[in-house]
Specification:
The protein is mainly alpha-helical and 114 residues long. 50% of the residues lie in helices and 8% in strands. Bound molecules: zinc ion.
Amino acid sequence: MSSIYNCPCCGEKTFNPLTKAMAGTMRSKGRVCPKCGKRCVNGKGATIFAAIYFLISFIFVVYVFMHGKDSVWWDTHEVPIVLALILNMYIVPKIVNGFCFKMMETLRIDAYEK
Ligand SMILES: [Zn+2]
């Protein structure tokens, strides 16, 4: 049966939500398939999602910065909010990758070099 946890090269189900989440997007070197040794990453859908999510989070960070001195509440909450936003920019796409999107072999030619 085909699933998003199947290796795109050999077709075996060699990934799970955790290893898939750690495989990264098309820009990364990916994770080695234990069956065929090819490096696999999350495909186009995951890469586009990560880019859009990054952009939205970035707009929020800029917004918080611009309004950071508006009131006393913002003054004390600006730093934790910005830190939370930056943290969530890295974590949320990984969690989504663990459960969505098809995988593919990495496009990076340097991925197999030692
Ligand atoms: Zn494989």
